[in-house]
Amino acid sequence: MPRPSPTREAPRRGRPGYDQETVLRHAIDLFNRRGYDGTSVGDLARELGLTKSAIYHHFPSKSYLLQAALTEALDALEEVVDTAATAGEDSGPSAYARLESVLRQAVGVLVEHLPAVTLLLRVHGNSDVELDALRRRREIDAKLAALVRAAADEGSLRADIPPELTSRLLFGMVNSLVEWYRPEGRYDAAGVADAVIRIAFEGLALRGE
């Protein structure tokens, strides 16, 4: 069965107050709370006080909703990584500076798209849509590892740890924000990004002069 393409057109109006974007936001919330497999279009319709046909007016199937949510998160992350990769061309910023920028911007993406990124990190490849999302995640991971390797090659990072492992540890720290970060909490995105950068590149230990 061919994979559905993500819905990209401008929001269409259905029942007053429930455009395509609103339906997607509620769907992501339900998928995170109840699990994708444990949520039906009927559940979403009841949540919004709509009929199932009203949901289908915006999205032809539940899988389209999932793909739209995962595409939101993946597109934002890919943009950050791809921008850092191309910025090094023609004597651009060092690999170290680009890696630091990616970490900082990745925190921003996670905070801005917290529900969608949370959903992305919970998929297991149970459908074609999820398998495609996992493939795109692997591609992002490979680009990050290449950036870590470039920073080690230029002498900015220690080279005794495999770049793939360093990349997983760094972005595992960023991804862990989905478990505890709340926009209304005591830490803002800039403060969290600063802490990630300092811990990742300076460490926690106090060293004497």
TrEMBL record:
Residues annotated as domain HTH tetR-type: 17-77
Descriptive protein name: HTH-type transcriptional repressor KstR2
PANTHER family: HTH-TYPE TRANSCRIPTIONAL REGULATOR BETI, HTH-TYPE TRANSCRIPTIONAL REGULATOR RUTR
Cleaved signal peptide residues: none
GO MF annotations in UniProt: DNA-binding transcription factor activity; transcription cis-regulatory region binding
Keyword Transcription regulation: yes
DNA-binding among keywords: yes
Organism of provenance: Streptomonospora litoralis
InterPro entries, A to Z: Homeodomain-like_sf (IPR009057), HTH-type_TetR-like_transc_reg (IPR050109), HTH_TetR (IPR001647), KstR2_TetR_C (IPR041490), Tet_transcr_reg_TetR-rel_C_sf (IPR036271)
